[in-house]
Amino acid sequence: MQNADVARFFDDLADLLEIQGANPFRIRAYRNAARTIENLTESVAGIAADPEQSLRDLPGIGKDLADKIVTILDTGRLPQLDALREEIPPGVVEMLRLPGIGPKKVAVLFRELGVASLDDLEQAAEQGRIAELKGFGKKTEQSILAGIAQVAAAGKRVWLAEAKTLADEIVAELSQRKSVGRASVAGSCRRLKETVGDLDVLVTSTDPAATMDGLAESERVSETLSRGETKQRVRLRSGLEMDLRVVPDDSYGAAMQYFTGSKEHNIVLRRRAQERGLKLNEYGLFRDGTSIAGRTEDEVYRSLDLPWIPPELRENRGEIERAEQGRLPTLIELSDIRGDLHMHTTATDGTATILDMVNGAKARNLKYIAITDHSKRVAMAGGLDAARLREHWANIDAIRKQTSGIEVLCGIECDILEDATLDLPDDVLSESDWVLAVLHYGLKQPREQINKRLLAAIRNPHVSAIGHPTGRLIGKRPGAEIDFDEVFRAAADFGVMLEINAHPARLDLDDIHAAAARDLGIPIVINTDAHSVSGLDMMQYGIYQARRAGLEKQNVANTRSWSQFRKLLRNRS
DNA sequence: GCCGTTTTCGGCCCGACTGTTTTCAGTCG
């Protein structure tokens, strides 16, 4: 059982308890436990099985929750959850997804009207039965109908690449207005999370009303959803929603801190303020009603006896403790990257020639690259068999001889087949400078078989790295189920690198698993998987993911000079 | 349900906006 699966039990339990009107602090305890488990770099099953470790050492896990975790791991069920599900149908929980509808309203709808699904709810709204309930009205009824349509339509999270591009454009647009002073993206987009649910933008303004009018009239905005003195929520034409907050200049740093989040990080900070007799909110840090910090984020953190913490790390995954101890990582930057070990050409499904890719890489100041076209199993992309691959390598060789200033490796993205063999024979792989082994097919196989495949690839002496280890496509398909503990141990033992694939749809390994791999000393490679020259620019998104994992330059193999990187390869055999 | 160099009981982060109210609960981030 994966950490995320265990966490889900507690989130589901919390949802049901909320509808039931249970003690809010008990509910919070379940949610805190879910976050703690989700953010672990070790597997919770591993901790439970290890006599040297105790679940109760995890923050927010006491006797009761430790027992519940063991029950979940042993039986795959949680009796309390099963009992609650008997009382509250799944459709009732689903209603929580509607904007403006929370547990209290859901409970009333279920209790008073017997509404037990989105379909029931839509019917009741159309019949005007909702507006008659106490605490409800015509507007709530209308917003329920609008919400149902919205949930059906989309309301989904978008890739960071899309959200960030849009957010940067909007900030630039707002910055041009005369009334606007400072402007910045905040929220999960600033934390560079792999997906973004909505945008948060912060501005200082001499004329808030005019600034909000300006946003409402922007080409990128389709409608204003709500608007007050300091906050405006709009829907963008792309479907994404955005909050604009207008804050006083003296509060800008505190507001940036507050609206960047994460919620979990902020809760710990506010508690820290309380312990020091202070109060922290979006307007500043206050002692007895007098502001003692707020103009800059740095000021806020310093006044809480902490160094400034990079937004990418603000998830309450131990960054506050590390900051306190002066052990914050020096996060990797794009300019640290020297090589790119995953890219395609017209030999398979790329759109650029070998020479184009080589020149594109040189233009981006890379010192070494690997050309890694597909192996034959990926027939749709025109994958290469042994003969075509050798021919391709000869072409790469020819170009390498007439090129200077960059090392070009004859590589291959070799499929790990469903039966745990590799798509090309060992004698071919042995001629390669760089073998990236990957899963493309059979991702739904049971975990045991997936692990068998990955372990077989890792043990093959010709394999250099595992590319996009889970095979997930964010928002489109989940990755393969992997026993990460076992795979990571094998990668560490055999000196096989693991990839963070920089494509915005992959970002695979994710932040948590990349951190776990780093903890085991496994060298990480960040690669673009470029299918065109401009695809080489995706490196930035891989760097973002690595920063969220807390990776430093020395954790990432392709920050090394070519001569250093080559040594890593030689150590392999 | 968790947690504790002020506590094993009594706390548990904070404010804006909306809709339904006539002073505030619910929701959201």
Describe this structure in words.
The chain has 24 helices and 17 strands. The protein is an alpha/beta fold and 573 residues long. The strands form 4 sheets. A 7-stranded parallel sheet has the order 11-12-13-14-15-16-17. Helix 8 (118-126) crosses helix 9 and helix 22 crosses helix 23 (539-548). The structure holds one DNA strand of 29 nucleotides.
Outline:
By secondary structure, the protein is an alpha/beta fold. It is built from 24 helices and 17 strands. The relative contact order is 0.07.
Number of helices: 24
What number is the mean pLDDT? 91
Assess the beta-strand content as a share of residues: 5-15%
Distance between the termini: 34 Å
Largest sheet: 7 strands, parallel
Q: What general outline do the C-alpha atoms trace?
A: globular
Structural class: alpha/beta
- How much is the radius of gyration in Å? 26 Å
Task: Write the SSE topology.
Blueprint: H1 3-20, H2 24-38, H3 44-49, H4 63-75, H5 79-87, H6 90-94, H7 103-113, H8 118-126, H9 138-153, E1 158-159, H10 160-175, E2 180-186, H11 187-190, E3 195-196, E4 198-205, H12 208-217, E5 221-227, E6 231-236, E7 241-246, H13 252-260, H14 263-275, E8 279-281, E9 284-287, E10 290-293, H15 297-303, H16 319-324, E11 339-340, H17 354-363, E12 368-371, H18 386-401, E13 407-415, H19 426-429, E14 434-438, H20 447-459, E15 465-466, H21 484-494, E16 497-501, H22 511-519, E17 524-527, H23 539-548, H24 562-572
Parallel strand pairs: 4-7, 11-12, 12-13, 13-14, 14-15, 15-16, 16-17
Antiparallel strand pairs: 1-3, 2-4, 5-6, 6-7, 8-9, 9-10
Helix pairs in contact: 1-2, 1-5, 1-7, 8-9, 13-15, 20-21, 22-23
The protein binds one DNA strand of 29 nucleotides through residues 23-30, 32-33, 59-65, 99-105, 134-140, 143, 187, 198, 200, 226-231, 233, 243, 245, 258-259, 261, 263, 266-271, 273-274, 279-283.
